[in-house]
From TrEMBL:
One term of GO molecular function: ATP binding
Transmembrane residue ranges: none
Keyword RNA-binding carried by entry: no
PANTHER family, alphabetized: AMINO ACID IMPORT ATP-BINDING PROTEIN (PTHR43166), GLUTAMATE_ASPARTATE IMPORT ATP-BINDING PROTEIN GLTL (PTHR43166:SF9)
Similarity field: Belongs to the ABC transporter superfamily.
InterPro entries per the UniProt record, alphabetical: AAA+_ATPase, ABC_ATPase_HisP-typ, ABC_transporter-like_ATP-bd, ABC_transporter-like_CS, MetN_ABC_transporter-like, P-loop_NTPase
Pfam families for this protein: ABC_tran
Subcellular location(s) per record: Cell membrane
Protein name: Amino acid ABC transporter ATP-binding protein
Membrane topology annotation: Peripheral membrane protein
Natural source organism: Micromonospora halotolerans
Length: 247
């Protein structure tokens, strides 16, 4: 996955506010991810982690604040173009069930990247090979394990050559024995230099793979720093309480 290194960017979320009706969900969230870095976002359910990811790739528009790629705001960009630069992987895979694995990958390459069929197939097969699923190209999603489906979803996002990858609890829906394989693909991607934001409950992954761990609570990043600082010397009482519940 060496191509990830050449194209990755720095990502910054600046003072992002967002309300759903009367419900203020993001209250000035800030996050910095270095070029090629991996930030893991941890925090209690309902704290705004998924909403934060969705504002980064503009599935939701923030009310206030900014999202910067290499110092340039993405808020004026065409959302469809932006989603080629920022890939996202969800808890529930979101593969098209009626299409083969290969077609799940080639569809976006043809529609968004306008690649001709033969080139799309070539890119898709190469990407499936990188996640160890070249032999499943002709299978339907339902014929795969959850872990394999999630690796297909990751390959589908990577096939578009994004500069940033967002993962929203990508392993939370998996049977325990399948989690490791998916986390392995994510760790490889991080090591290859992809810029990533990973919302996760996997504290071992955060400790080993992240450069930055950001603790979200009530719509803000309350504390962020290197894993050693966040896990071994948490400053905020709410972070200490959260860690005592999950570790
Ligand atoms: P987390 O991912 O940390 O569990 P979310 O970002 O999913 O948190 O949600 C934060 C809060 O925003 C929750 O209270 C949730 O109910 C609310 N919320 C999320 N999406 C919507 C939406 N589309 N409409 C209204 N409320 C929402
Ligand atoms: Mg969530």
């Amino acid at each position: 996955m060496s191509t990830a290194t050449a194209t990755s960017v720095s990502l910054a979320v600046r003072d992002v506010h967002l309300a759903f009706g009367p419900h203020q969900v993001l209250r000035g969230a800030d996050l910095d991810v270095a070029r090629g870095g991996t930030a893991c976002v941890i925090g209690p359910s309902g704290s705004g982690k998924s909403t934060l990811l969705r504002t980064i790739n503009r599935l939701i528009e923030p009310d206030r604040g900014d999202v910067l790629l290499d110092g340039r705001s993405v808020l004026g960009d065409d959302p469809d173009a932006l989603r080629q630069r920022i890939g996202m992987v969800f808890q529930q895979f979101n593969l098209f069930p009626h299409m083969t694995v290969l077609r799940n990958l080639t569809l976006a390459l043809r529609k968004l990247k306008k690649l001709p069929e033969d080139e799309a197939v070539q890119v898709a097969r190469a990407q499936l090979d990188l996640v160890g699923l070249a032999h499943k190209a002709e299978a339907r999603p339902a014929q795969l394990s959850g872990g394999q489906q999630q690796r297909v979803a990751i390959a589908r996002a990577l096939a578009l050559r994004p500069q940033v990858m967002l993962f929203d609890e990508a392993t939370s829906a998996l049977d325990p024995e399948l989690v490791k394989g998916v986390l392995g693909v994510m760790a490889d991607l991080s090591a290859a230099g992809m810029t990533m934001v990973v919302v996760t409950h996997e504290m071992g992954f955060a400790r080993e793979v992240a450069d930055t761990v950001a603790f979200m609570d009530a719509g803000v990043v309350l504390e962020a720093g290197p894993p050693a600082a966040v896990f071994e010397a948490p400053e905020h009482p709410r972070l200490r309480r959260f860690l005592s519940q999950v570790l």
